[in-house]
Amino acid sequence: LSLSVCISSRELFSPSQKYQLLVYHADSLFHDKEYRNAVSKYTMALQQKKALSKTSKVRPSTGNAASTPQSQCLPSEIEVKYKMAECYTMLKQDKDAIAILDGIPSRQRTPKINMMLANLYKKAGQERSSVTSYKEVLRQCPLALDAILGLLSLSVKGAEVASMTINVIQSIPNLDWLSVWIKAYAFVHTGDNTRAINTICSLEKKSLLRDNVDLLGSLADLYFRAGDNKNSILKFEQAQMLDPYLIKGMDVYGYLLAREGRLEDVENLGCRLFNISDQHAEPWVVSGCHSFYSKRYSRALYLGAKAIQLNSNSVQALLLKGAALRNMGRVQEAIIHFREAIRLAPCRLDCYEGLIECYLASSSIREAMVMANNVYKTLGANAQTLTLLATVCLEDPVTQEKAKTLLDKALTQRPDYIKAVVKKAELLSREQKYEDGIALLRNALANQSDCVLHRILGDFLVAVNEYQEAMDQYSIALSLDPNDQKSLEGMQKMEKEESPTDATQEEDVDDMEGSGEEGDLEGSDSEAAQWADQEQWFGMQ
């Protein structure tokens, strides 16, 4: 209304007041998420400011409008340009955002402008410019942790980053932990999960940082990256107890719960997160994991796309959407999403696993082998990379012996690594070395309980005619994950193959008929219909 009055009667408002009105109007549009309109009004405001700066005197106002000095209470031109850049980023026009911020002279750039520029440069792949901007942020604000993480993610050495903060660390009491914090996240960004875990654990045990939710979340994520899902879930649960409104990292937590078949817990987690905020990617990813493991791939695809819309840098959302596309047979589209996940998180093995699974699904064994070798060289020879390379080698009859060697190395490093145990069992099954397989699986299950391991042990026991114990293993597997289709199929197959004419079992069959236990078996068959539509353990199809 005031702008209309201003246009109709230029005498009522001074040029500086018109500039203020345009900025206030643009701010209102920005908060209403009308970003294109806001950009238009901010542009008009900057034009008005430019005209204002050319006039040496402010035009005197009339009426009730009080005359004020031009410099008094005027919105900063730099702040207006920052708001324009924010609008462009919301509109996914990063080039325009960079252009508007680049137009601000270096000396006039505030830390938040340099921070936005650094993030935009990083996203655009302009690493050198991004590093320069992050360093400028640290020069002005040596305790800007996001700038520290940004530099570490761009492969700047931890020692160099620490040197930029050393003066502040030494001048402020009780801040010596920060150098250890930087060291820990330097390990994180080089993919050295073991040393990162040990360093963060040492931080978390200190009285000053004990029960810190952010450190617990980082620790949970590192355990997940290292393949230690049990400890990862434990740390996520600790963080949740300390902060019931925690959202960060809950997408990974939901994924882990879904993998374990705890779909009811996943559903409850999704509902709780939606009650906290539906403007973050995490609730949508958690609900998407529930749909994926319920074999509702179309819904999982939609939820993953919604999560990406809210946060295009959500690695877990990209992995969810990629997995849904792969299971729907849209492998080429899935490959695009896994590649983007790798770009965002080059040290996360699960991103490479998804891409390699796509290559194998499309019979591109050569591409899968090249990728697996690259991962092995980049992330080092640990149990996870060795197992991933062995997985590809198992697809080619020529490289079976190499797969065996790789799996033996992986199990030497980590005898409890489930994926390595599963792949070694698969190899022993091909060679029909069932007794060796049973020994391997019993050893792996001595200190842990896992649905897949119990199910495979059941399969091996069937092969050596140990039917009763096999049935027990299938039952344990289903108690851990009621949605495990293969365990259910194993039980049903055994029930169908049981013959009443078998001399050794004839009396038992008669006794079962007399005692009504047959009805129990029929009941378990009827339950199969409920389980038949549920998802298998992810990645073991």
Unreliable stretches: 56-70, 500-510, 512-541
Q: What is the CATH third-level topology name of the domain at 247-341?
A: Serine Threonine Protein Phosphatase 5, Tetratricopeptide repeat
Query: From the alpha-carbon coordinates, what is the Rg to the nearest angstrom?
Result: 30 Å
User: Count of helical segments?
Assistant: 31
Q: What is the terminal separation in angstroms? A: 64 Å
CATH class of the domain at 247-341: Mainly Alpha
Overall average pLDDT: 85
Number of strands: 0
Structural class: mainly alpha
Overall morphology:
elongated
- SS strand fraction: under 5%
Largest sheet, in brief, is:
none
Give me the CATH architecture of the domain at 247-341, please: Alpha Horseshoe
The named CATH superfamily of the domain at 247-341: Tetratricopeptide repeat domain
Q: Please estimate the helix content.
A: over 70%
Region (Disordered): 489-541
Protein name: APC7 protein
Pfam families: TPR_16, TPR_8
TPR repeats: 315-348, 451-484
